Amino acid sequence: MGARKGNLMSVRDDIKVVDVTIRDGGLCNDFRFTDEFVRELYKTNIRSGVDYMEFGYKASREMFDKTAFGKWKFCKEEDLRAIVGENISDMKIAVMADVGRCDYKHDFLPKKDSVIDMVRVACYIHQIPAAIEMIEHFHALGYETSGNIMAISQSSAGEVEEAVRMLATSSVDVIYVVDSYGSLFPENAGDFAQVYYAIADAAGKKVGFHAHNNQNLAFANTIETLSYGISYLDASAQGMGRGAGNCSMELLLGFLRNPKYNLYSLLTFIEKYMIPLKNQGIRWGFDLPYMFTGQLNLHPREAMAFEAEDRHDYCEFYKSLLDNI
Predict the structure, then answer these.
(1) Which residues pair with 144 in a beta bridge?
(2) Which of these, 172, 245, 273, 283, has the minimum number of CB atoms within 10 Å of its CB?
(3) 145: helix, strand or coil
(4) Residue among 209, 282, 222, 208 nearest 250 (CA)
(5) Does the structure show a pLDDT above 70 at 214?
(6) Position 172 pLDDT exceeds 80
(7) For residues 56 and 320, what is the distance between their CA atoms, to the nearest angstrom?
(8) What is the number of other CB atoms lying within 10 angstroms of the CB of residue 305?
(9) What is the DSSP string of 214-234?
């Protein structure tokens, strides 16, 4: 298996930190962030040394009710430019395109006409051919691309390896290990990292990791996969993301030894914007229902419904999950 890269004191220049607060966090509030919130996060990420900021989804405006979501569900060019202008910073702009949920042939401009730098293509393992078709389309338009294979914890090792090999033959730039259900432990997250890295590195691709915090392991899994050569690391302010949330940006920036990353601006943003968001009643983060679905390797949708109803009958909920396995 692969050797670890660097140590706890070393700086890895290949590391890229990706802020997913608006995109994954948007799943907590239907993407209804104020322009002030998004603009201040954009400035904070630049000051903090973050390498990429993911603004949201490029979802189909035909498929999804535009009145049911905020603008970052759709990431129209004019809305992005209202925040970033021409983005005269070193930080790159990313959006996510879900296989089967976007009009990718119509909704993306050529890169030369857009402030978007990277399109992250998300798919399930059976959608790899469709994902590759999208990746080639975005590559031809001039964008950087990533392939994010979701819910790999429910696929066989052989299926995952074959999917990674297929992606590695495409024009994709980064292949992501995605712990959709927050069910991985550092040991098997590290195993996945080594498999992905061996295939991707041989093909000249980078590897990323996207964690969920169902078992309070998002940060632990992120730095474990980092140690095996994974270089694109997803994180969000205070871990804001669907359900149990993601790896906390403040933990990651505090861990990385590269002096380009700065924690102070992020802490100021948390004080001024994240705490009020929580005080409004928007919920995310580790809780027992998410722990249950993480331990049982299940999609968190039932836990999210449990939380939305403000239930506390944890034993009954756990038994119901066991009954349905």
Answers:
(1) 118
(2) 283
(3) strand
(4) 222
(5) yes
(6) yes
(7) 33
(8) 12
(9) TTS-HHHHHHHHHHTT--EEE
CB 137 within 8 A of CB 105: yes
Residue 12, φ and ψ in degrees, nearest 5: -105, 115
Average confidence (pLDDT) over 7-32: 96
* Amino acid at the residue 63: M
CA-closest candidate to residue 64, choices 12, 26, 114, 20 = 26
Considering all CA atoms of the chain, what is the largest pairwise distance in Å, rounded to the nearest integer? 55
Amino acid at 274: M
* Residue 67 Ramachandran class (φ > 0 left, ψ -120 to 50 alpha, else beta): alpha
Please give the Cα distance from 189 to 182 (Å, whole number).
10
In order, the DSSP letters of 252-305 are HHHH---TT--SHHHHHHIIIIIHHHHHTT---S--HHHHHHHHTT--THHHHH
Q: Which residues pair with 233 in a beta bridge?
A: 17, 209
206: phi > 0 → left, psi -120 to 50 → alpha, else beta; which? Answer: beta
- In 10 A of CB 112, how many CB atoms? 7
> What is the per-residue pLDDT for 142?
98
In order of their start, the domains of the chain are 16-279 (3.20.20.70), 288-323 (no CATH)
Radius of gyration of the chain (CA): 19
For residue 260, what are its two tokens?
A: 């380009």
- In this prediction the pTM is 0.98
